[in-house]
Amino acid sequence: MCIFATRLFLGVLFCAPYQCSGCPLGCECFAVTHTVKCVSKSLLRVPQNIPGYARTVVITGNNIHQIGAESFSELENVTNVILSNNRITELAAHTFSALINLSFLDLSGNQLALIHPEALSIPGSPLQELDLSCSLFNFTALTDLATALRWGGLWGLLRLDLSGNRLALLPPGMFSHVPSLQQLLLSNNSLVAVYSGTFSGMDHLETLDLTHNAFGTFRNDALQELERLGNVRILLGDNPYTCSCEIREFVTWLNDSRAQVDVDAVRCVSPAGVTNVRLQGLTVQAIGCVSPVLPEVTDLTLQTSYVFLGLVLGLVGMIFLFVLYLNRNGMKKWIIETRDACRDVLEGYHYRYEIDSDPRLGNTRETGNYLPIKLTSDV
Ligand SMILES: *[C@@H]1O[C@H](CO)[C@@H](O)[C@H](O)[C@H]1NC(C)=O
Ligand SMILES: *[C@@H]1O[C@H](CO)[C@@H](O)[C@H](O)[C@H]1NC(C)=O
Ligand SMILES: *[C@@H]1O[C@H](CO)[C@@H](O)[C@H](O)[C@H]1NC(C)=O
Ligand SMILES: *[C@@H]1O[C@H](CO)[C@@H](O)[C@H](O)[C@H]1NC(C)=O
Ligand SMILES: *[C@@H]1O[C@H](CO)[C@@H](O)[C@H](O)[C@H]1NC(C)=O
């Protein structure tokens, strides 16, 4: 009796009010809504003793760096776990294995640098939604995640949110081990290209969100990869599209694709002439694929050939002058000779003229045999 009284007394003395009603320290428990909340309490680890009726566990805004298999004891009724903004850097193996009915897991706003290959595996693959937005610390975390998706047995995952992770590159085939995926959210990253194989093995995709990335265009292999997804909703808006001739295939694809694209948000960002113009329906003229470029090019080659011709002619002229200069003595001789020869001929004509105009010599002309030189000697 005495012992019992002492126990009761100590129990009342040391039992925190929440714990006495079966709620962990620093948390609020709502039996009616089956919810436990531990919000912004600077907790260093996931609280133990979460009541068995809990279906939704919200632990946000704390200071929990590492979580592992010891963090969650068996809680068959828990379906939603929200662990956003806790500065979690490490996910150890089998962290959630005890939560056999977990279907929604939110790890957004953390700084995951280390993810064990089996961090996400849960017997029975109950997980349907995984939110990892703004949570991957660097590229190592992304490759870790790719491995965890492969080894996690996430056969039932329907929705994966990877937005806001500054992703520049997706490992090929990263999603081929989550074959049921219906929604893949990759918005607000730094993706510049899709490659063949990026979305391989995804046969049930319904929505692909690639908005707010760094795509300037989509090349042929990317377009084939997107087209292979079939009649899905593909969001491509708010990317810095450059509407030069290289974007032609993308425009053709937008014109003809069977995918449901948010075409109204897919607009040119540059060059200046077409800023904010919708890509779909653009003509090849509008994106500068046809000529005006060509005449300019021929003009230029024409100009170049004129310049070249001028140079060649100038060179030939200079060589000619140089040869003349070298030959100047011979030239002088030739000029004097030519001059003398000319003078002789001219003098000959001079005589002929004098004879022709002399009336006394008229008869001689009639008799023929007229040679100015002879006549001169006769006179
Ligand atoms: C889960 O919920 C059911 C029904 O509310 C309850 O009977 C059961 O005891 C709960 N499980 C645990 C481990 O508390
Ligand atoms: C939890 O999982 C067990 C075994 O898979 C199942 O029998 C039970 O109905 C589930 N409980 C809830 C609340 O989903
Ligand atoms: C990512 O961060 C972790 C932890 O700081 C570090 O060990 C790793 O080398 C980093 N990886 C890269 C690619 O920077
Ligand atoms: C984009 O992601 C960054 C973190 O990478 C985040 O700070 C920012 O709020 C996000 N923006 C939008 C519009 O979601
Ligand atoms: C896209 O379609 C418009 C009209 O629907 C057409 O005028 C244009 O040439 C097409 N663009 C390309 C690049 O096929």
Describe this protein's structure.
With 379 residues, the chain is α/β, with parallel strands linked by helices. The protein folds into 2 domains: 19-293, Leucine-rich repeat, LRR (right-handed beta-alpha superhelix), CATH 3.80.10; 327-378. It is 32% helix and 12% strand. The chain has helices spanning 2-14, 17-20, 139-151, 220-228, 248-256, 293-326, 328-356, 362-366, 372-378, and strands spanning 28-30, 35-39, 56-60, 66-67, 80-82, 90-91, 104-106, 114-115, 129-131, 159-161, 183-185, 207-209, 233-235, 241-242, 260-261, 268-270. Strands 1-2-3-5-7-9-10-11-12-13-15 form an 11-stranded mixed beta sheet, with no helix packed on it. Helix 4 (220-228) links the parallel strand 12 (207-209) and strand 13 (233-235). The termini are far apart. The structure holds 2-acetamido-2-deoxy-beta-D-glucopyranose (5 copies). One 2-acetamido-2-deoxy-beta-D-glucopyranose is lined by residues 248, 251-252, 255, 281-284. This is Trophoblast glycoprotein 1a. Pfam families: LRR_1, LRR_8. One of its GO terms (biological process) is negative regulation of canonical Wnt signaling pathway.
